Amino acid sequence: MFIIALLTLLIRIAQCDHHNRTNQLPNRSTIVHLFEWKWKDIADECERFLAPHGFGGVQISPPSENVIIHLQDNTRPWYERYQVMSYKLVTRSGNREEFLNMTRRCNKVGVRIYADVVFNHMTADNSNNIGTAGSTADFKKYSYPAVPYTEEHFHHPFCAINNYNNVTEVRDCQLVGLKDLNQTMDYVRQKITKYLNNLIELGVAGLRIDAAKHMWPSDLKEIYNRLNNLNTDFGFPPKSKPYIYQEVIYYGNEPIKPSEYTSLGDVTEFRVEAELRNVFRGNNPLKWLVSWGEQWELLPSDSALAFIDNHDTQRTGNALTYKEARAYKAAIAFMLAHPYGEPRLMSSYFFNNSDQGPPSDSSENIISPSINKDDTCGNGWVCEHRWRQIYHMVAFRNAVGKETIRNWWDNGHNQIAFSRGNKGFIAFNVEGRKLNETLQTGLPPGNYCDVITGKRRGNSCTGGKVTVRKDGYASINLPGNAEDMHLAIHIGRESSLQAR
């Protein structure tokens, strides 16, 4: 009965049409968060890399005016982008015209833009009261004349969140000193809706709702109901709705649950990264992943935004990040190979402390990533989405489409493999000893390039090669101490030597 229930669940997961919900093109998948990138650089990246490699969309940093914050070393922290001064579209990433240039160019090549929007709060108290568009505020008086908001538009009495088991406190009090807007007020809803509809008019395909957990679902519902359809001038079909995904941090044992928000839109499933980091660090056996998904008490697949790390967990949690590359790449590969959820990747810059902002010059301008001959980035940018082991897994996900999981194999511990129907096959080895097995791949017979160790180049492979027999079986070899702990092949042109 367990196997039947599992197969039924996996079939239902695979049949969910993510493309209609996310507004991505049918042959694309995966959102990448180009954290703190400039609008012009994102437009360039859509054209030169993301579109050619099948990425579905980009999450951008908040486009609304933020307060300018200087740290003790006179640098600017990343978190200033989450302290709102007004809804003017002027930040270090660019202005309104540059924003529009980005959405036009990215949509033209089929890469969607999802804006990270902050409207739970405005700023905290800061020594500087000038924003990136030149707006000013009186923090003590809760006065933001560029909106305008005054004291009456914030929750009263003014209080701080101290007890996350108190639902009212979490939603009506101030998160780390950030002045908490009262979204129940119609005036506040109007201002927020005007801002969001402005972004929709300028060509975004969806919205990432920052701090959704700290707002009442009933208030969010009223705001979402006022959103316009997507702008058909950017190639969206008529009556398309913006894709909504909401930040609700939840690891269990709190009264506010992600399920309260799933009727409104997708929800960021933080337990994905929490569980997978334990598996790929070797703390839990890989064999347990046979039931990965809702049976792990995760959100329904068609409501979940899945990720391994984000801009917060990189700095404040125990998440896998680029700093732990081997396990990180494997966890991402599993996330992209498995049909659970809508995946989002993180693309970072190098940082040494949790406050550090993006690479900048002496005039505080963000420095553009440089592109190396091997497709990696320079100028202080990590660009995980340009790592071969990651962007090739985006192609894997595109190639397997809606296929279900089949041909599961494990060794009873930390070696696993499975296929996605007859279109893709992947294997993982987290043990110290070699994986050397003849396994059913489900794939058509022929030669395939392992897209983790290399790529297809003409009729040969720059990395490993796997030969699939007529019966679908292949000899799978994974050393226990290799640079990467996984192998992947698929029917797409990046892997199959038969594909043209």
From TrEMBL:
Show which residues constitute the signal peptide.
1-16
Enzyme Commission no: 3.2.1.1
Assembly state and interactors?
Monomer.
What cofactor does this chain's UniProt record say it requires?
Answer: Ca(2+); chloride
Under the heading InterPro entries, the entry gives: A-amylase/branching_C, A-amylase_C, Alpha_amylase, GH, GH13_cat_dom, Glyco_hydro_b
Domain Alpha-amylase C-terminal: start-end pairs: 406-494
For this protein, what reaction is catalysed?
A: Endohydrolysis of (1->4)-alpha-D-glucosidic linkages in polysaccharides containing three or more (1->4)-alpha-linked D-glucose units
Upper classification of the organism = Eukaryota, Metazoa, Ecdysozoa, Arthropoda, Hexapoda
Q: Which SUPFAM superfamilies match?
A: (Trans)glycosidases, Glycosyl hydrolase domain
What family is reported?
Belongs to the glycosyl hydrolase 13 family.
Task: State what protein this is by name.
Answer: Alpha-amylase
Q: Does the keyword ATP-binding apply?
A: no
List UniProt keywords, sorted A-Z: Calcium, Carbohydrate metabolism, Chloride, Disulfide bond, Glycosidase, Hydrolase, Metal-binding, Signal
Ranges for domain Glycosyl hydrolase family 13 catalytic come to 29-397
Tell me the Pfam families matching this sequence: Alpha-amylase, Alpha-amylase_C
